[in-house]
Amino acid sequence: MSWGEAAARVREIACGLKTLGLERGDRVSIIGDNRPVLYNAMLAVQSLGGVPVPIYQDSVADETRYVLNNAEVRFVFAEDQEQVDKVFEVKDDCPTIEAVIYDDPRGLRDYDAGGLYSTEFLMREGRARDAAQPDFYDAEVDRGSADDTSVILYTSGTTGNPKGVVLSYRNILVSALNSVRLEGLRETDEVLAYLPMAWVGDHMFSCGQSLVAGFCVCCPESADTVLNDLWEIGPTYFFAPPRIFENVLTTVMIRIQDSSWLKRKLFFHFLEVAKLYGKKILDGQPVGAAGRFRYALGSTLIYRPLLNTLGLTRVRVAYTAGEAIGPDIFDFFRSIGLNLKQLYGMTEASVFITIQPDGEVRSDTVGRPATGVELRIEDNEVQFRSPGVFVEYFRNPEATAETKTGDGWCRTGDAGFVDDEGHLKIIDRAKDVGHLNDGTMFAPKYIENKLKFFPDIFEAVSFGHERDYVTALINIDLEAMGDWAERNGISYASYQELAGLPQVYDIVQDRVAQVNRDLAADSSLAGAQIRRFLVLHKQLDADDGELTRTRKVRRRHVADKYGSLVEALYSDRDRCAIETEVTFEDGRKGTISADIQVRDVASAAAARSAA
Predict the structure, then answer these.
(1) Would you state the pLDDT for residue 609?
(2) Distance CA 449, CA 555 (A)
């Protein structure tokens, strides 16, 4: 679709929305996967002075109901029958909703509910209105100003109900322009739009930056085909949260373990070569002729074919953000030639707070302040001021005042410091950093990220604040651990059964021991080694309220839901029975029971003494 074709569609949808009664300032929700028509609809709403309010496409009914009511949404764009059903399930509780517009008609032929329209109908009505009033659309666009509300994006809600972050056009466009200039993005670039439209990162990359730079936004066929579509498209500009890179590396390692001994030997040999020279070559540092030759040979045999298989061969700039990425995972991708950089941002910043400049990319920092951003540390908390600072939380002045100061500084809630080279280092969420009873600093996210580096550990939640020692609840990675079980002839019928196997516990115990050795090398965290752990009988799931829709752990909810397990970790018990409510894919509720093993792990010093 050309920009001209997109502009024509936006005009038709906008004129159709006016026919339905859209007024300046009305909120309009968009729910669905990344689809061109939904991006067009968002621009159409903005053209008339309306305010798009995207909702995560996998939100359950209660989450959808909350956003629709909190934003007082009048119109909803729903991609397909699934999303239409979700809206109609809660519509009686949302009195402001007047119309629902769907795009995919499959399954909706016999729906006779009032206020349900197709995008085809909307555009047909829009063309008729545009023909009758050809000056209407342009006049509406001209009424807009830079300080009007551009979008309301809801936070992930890790500690309670999500808050509606109000961003202006100035917030979005100035931040987009600064970042486009910094990275040299241009109209020939291509990006894959596969992350939720309700997430600020997708809104910036797929909307803000694409409008400023004019590059092409590619939508995947479906969530299940993203990796194949990534390979077909071969984008030049790519963003993925750490979980995606972790999953990719897990898949790579599984395939390598299943390959012939010769391929395994070549892969691990040249992986060591990449560790020696790859990052230096990528950063333009001097490398001798012999090292460059060895790396070039590895690139021909291993690195380039691997990047090509992943669809990342053409990538000029790749970002990761959202949470800390394991340094070994980060270094792996940079060492094989992917220009992967960390940025630090948040919805309230219109994404950008810090970015790693080329040539200054390090695994332990998140870079320097982005263009136009000021940074300061107050009581260990990172605070910033920039053109992207949000206007307010929608109809929540108390929360706005808690986050945003009178002179425009924004409190991030993250603990960090600026090093001697001007790079920001994030330690953890300020509210999550605590201390053991002996005074040792406890940074749970730091410990959890070390655990999640291992491909067979999917998620971890650690505890220790105001306790005598550190413990952890651990989720295994079903794909990685399942592949290990298959290669070793071990049968299992479910995730729960696999998670409870003694051999799986042995593997996890080895991983925890390695993390303890790493922590022992840090004088400030040596006392925060993990003493006891257990492997959860189910995967943490957003549908069960354990994760946010952006896959962040809702720490308080997990601590409450699995309180009996946490208490068992701080007792002398070696087992704990639990019954847990779960949500199935079709929305039904059920329960699963388990008798979970609790294991002790020796500290690194004790392990050395025993050896």
Answers:
(1) 64
(2) 14
Reduce the DSSP state of residue 600 to 3 states and report it.
strand
Asked whether the predicted pLDDT for residue 608 surpasses 80, the reply is: no
CA 175 to each of CA 172, 209, 215, 320: distance values in angstroms, whole numbers, following the listed order? 5, 9, 16, 17
- Alpha-helix residue ranges (DSSP H) falling in 113-234: 119-132, 136-142, 169-183, 200-202, 209-213, 226-233
Find where tokens 């809600």 sit: 157
Cβ 467 vs Cβ 436: under 8 Å: yes
Q: With beta carbons less than 8 A apart as the criterion, state whether 485 and 492 touch.
A: yes
State the pLDDT at residue 611: 62
What mean pLDDT, rounded, does the chain reach?
A: 93
Cα distance between residue 487 and residue 149, in whole Å = 55
The pTM assigned to this predicted structure is 0.81
Taking residues 571-599, report their average pLDDT.
90
DSSP string, 26-77: -EEEEESSS-HHHHHHHHHHHHTT-EEEEE-TT--HHHHHHHHHHTTEEEEE
Element (H, E) at 327: helix 327-335
What percent of the chain is modeled with pLDDT above 90?
Answer: 76
The residues pairing with 118 across neighbouring beta strands, listed in sequence order, are 102
Q: Is the pLDDT of residue 428 over 80?
A: no
Yes or no: say if 31 and 86 are a contact pair by the CB < 8 Å rule: yes
Write the DSSP symbol of residue 180: H
Question: What number of other Cβ atoms are within 10 A of residue 357's Cβ?
Answer: 14
**The length of the chain, given as a count of residues:** 611
